[in-house]
Write a structure and sequence with these properties.
The chain is of the alpha+beta class and about 625 residues long. Helices cover about 35% and strands about 25% of the residues. It is built from 14 helices and 25 strands. Strands 1, 2, 3, 4, 10 and 11 form a six-stranded mixed beta sheet that branches. A four-stranded mixed beta sheet has the order 14-13-12-17, sandwiched between helices. β2 and β3 form a beta hairpin. It is globular and about 80 Å long. The protein starts with 20 loop residues before the first strand and ends in a 9-residue tail after the last helix.
Length: about 625
């Protein structure tokens, strides 16, 4: 019997054609790619039948190696072999200290805010390293499926901030991939288990990967997941379990902490192998070649392993407790606990999680593959391969939502095409000393200036404690529910004073008007960018002027003689004049630079004066 292919007019030249799409779990220790074939989501193996791709990249003079071969070379070439790069992505140089000694690489002092690792192929960033992993996974998918991918869904931890999410998108772009969406890992896991098709209720996703831990409490309501609370630790995972076991081996074998990088990498490999073997055995033998040519052999039993990792597991349980408290639910209210991440294979982890939630965790799907499978299911929907009734999660915000900031600029808080429901928060501060109120102007649109966007609402936050400019912390939270209703809340964090309002973002806008606004943003992109740069420089000039005026009022007469003060005042007047009349951002920037150069000696005197005042009555050794 012949069947007719039915599709919406204009949907595709070949509406019956299955569009190739994939879900990618870009993990700290291992990464996977999955797709939907014949209605079944499955992860894709390489030529050797291996589904897991170790998230390790080795740089050599002859090229780049990704995966198991790179991981195996880590012992002999540790400085050019980069693992656990997910811990670095989207982080700045200042964040490195929070990672401790977990990433023993040689970082380049390039003056950039982005950490760069020195390799024989030159300095590389976390984005570039991640792109190499994504490129290999995409090639695997295209080779298996026999065609080019139309797009991918990449999973990220729920607590990844905007910088980490954008860096992940940048890596995908560098790898030549179109990203349909970044999907939170817990949501992907829930989708993989089909929880989105079950009865409404509360679900917990316990995700313990190689380098990150993520606990998410989700409420399913009519097919839509609401993230009630998230928690976790972006620097806690299976790598830390390995490190604890490696530390035990070093203690037993008498190996010092100053061991060579190659030996330390070998110890981590031994520790990981022992940890994995204990998932099915009561004890495992461990043997290590010592630097002096000798050999140490011992046994690691499950009881010792439990003692080593229990403190780490307790940290995850504490995060679970906080997440439930934030969500306002008890462990008994949680219907299902989904186990995600290879580290949840450890029986001790499953035991402790089951005890806390009072229910047997779900482990039916391979915990290494569950996130990739959920991502593949979403990618299949977003590629247009599913009927309309399965497109429930495709509602998006048609235009960006943001607030007005100084200089008549729009700070976008939720970008257009963000899937709803969604909540985003951003912190702002005051511009003037003693400011006790802030006007919140909510806007919609893609342009950079307030005058070119649409006003949605205005309200005021009052009761801000008087502080110096820049000291107050005002968190503005935008929440859009499944019906597109926007709730905006402003909160002063030190005193907890709040103000809020609800609006309907799309109210009064037709599809044609939305299209016109998008077209306008593209047509005026260049001039909008210049206008924004000019407005930002004017705001910066105002900040510099106000700060200098405040300083002069405080100690100008004390630290400056008549001629010096005259020079400073002249440079200050020049900046005011340029800021008021300039139509070029660079002119204001140069004038700010000129004022700062003129005031260098004054800044130095103020600093010395403040240090002397701070040290008055104290001895030097008290500050050591």
């Amino acid at each position: 019997m012949a069947f007719l292919q039915i599709a919406e007019p204009g949907q595709s030249d070949a509406p019956h054609q299955h569009r190739l799409a994939a879900g990618i779990d870009l993990g700290t220790t291992n990464s996977l790619v999955a797709t939907v074939r014949s209605g079944v989501a499955e992860t894709l193996p390489d030529e050797d039948g291996e589904h897991l791709l170790p998230s390790v990249v080795r740089y050599t003079p002859d090229g780049v190696i990704v995966g198991a071969a790179a991981r195996d070379a880590g012992v002999e070439d540790p400085h050019n072999t980069i693992a656990s790069v997910k811990r670095l992505i989207g982080r700045g140089v200042d964040d490195l200290k929070t990672l401790g000694d977990a990433l023993p690489y040689r970082f380049v002092d390039s003056g950039s805010a982005v950490p760069r690792i020195q390799t024989v192929a030159g300095p590389v960033s976390a984005v570039e390293v991640s792109a190499e992993i994504l490129r290999v996974l995409a090639q695997r998918a295209e080779k298996t499926l026999g065609g080019e991918l139309t797009g991918v869904v990449i999973t990220v931890p729920a607590y990844f901030d905007d910088a980490q999410r954008q860096a992940t998108k940048d890596a995908a772009k560098l790898a030549g991939l179109k990203v349909f969406r970044l999907l939170n890992e817990p949501t992907a896991a829930a989708v993989a288990y089909g929880l989105d098709r079950e009865a409404d209720g509360v679900h917990a996703i316990y995700d313990l990967g190689g380098g990150t831990f993520d606990i998410s409490v989700l409420r399913l309501n009519r097919g839509v997941f609401e993230v009630m609370a998230t928690g976790g630790d972006s620097a806690l995972g299976g790598d830390d379990f390995d490190r604890a076991v490696a530390g035990w081996i070093m203690q037993q074998a008498g190996i010092g902490g100053d061991a060579a990088p190659g030996l330390l990498r070998a110890l981590m490999d031994k520790a990981r192998a022992a940890k994995e073997a204990l998932a099915g055995r009561a004890s495992v033998p461990v043997a290590v070649d010592l630097p002096d040519g000798g050999k140490w052999e011992g046994q690691l039993d499950r009881e010792t392993f439990n003692t080593l990792v229990d403190p780490l597991i307790r940290k995850t349980i504490s995060a679970c407790r906080r997440a439930l408290r934030d969500a306002g639910v008890t462990p008994e209210e949680v219907k299902d606990v989904v186990m995600v991440g290879g580290s949840t294979r450890a029986l001790r982890v499953r035991e402790k999680v089951g005890e806390f939630f009072g229910t047997e965790p779900l482990v039916d799907i391979d915990p290494d593959r569950v996130v990739a499978i959920g991502a593949a299911l979403q990618a299949d929907v977003l590629a247009g391969n599913k009927p309309e009734d399965e497109m429930l999660l495709l509602d998006v915000i048609p235009l960006s939502l943001g607030i007005e900031t100084m200089g008549g600029l729009v700070e976008k808080i939720i970008p257009r095409n963000t899937t709803i429901p969604v909540a985003r928060a951003q912190e702002f501060t005051t511009l003037k000393d003693g400011q006790t109120a802030m006007a919140i102007h909510v806007l919609q649109g893609e342009r950079e200036l307030v005058s070119d966007c649409r006003t949605l609402a205005r309200f005021e936050l009052r009761g801000i404690p008087p502080m110096v400019a820049g000291a107050a912390r005002i968190r503005v939270t935008f929440s859009v529910d499944a019906d597109g209703l926007l709730h905006v809340e402003a909160e002063e964090l030190s005193q907890g004073v709040k103000a809020d309002i609800e609006v309907k973002p799309s109210y009064g806008l037709t599809d044609e008007e939305i299209a016109d606004m998008l077209k306008s943003s593209i047509e005026h992109a260049g001039e909008d960018l210049e206008a924004r740069r000019l407005a930002e420089q004017k705001v910066e000039a105002a900040r510099v002027v106000e700060a200098l005026q405040s300083a002069l009022a405080a100690d100008g007469d004390e630290l400056l003689d008549g001629n010096e003060r005259e020079r400073v005042e002249a440079a200050l007047d020049e900046l005011r004049r340029v800021a008021e009349s300039a139509t070029d951002a660079e002119a204001i920037k140069r004038s700010i630079g000129a004022l700062e150069k003129t005031c260098e000696f004054y800044v130095e005197r103020r600093m010395n004066s403040n240090i002397r005042k701070a040290m008055a009555g104290h001895k030097v050794d008290e500050f050591e």
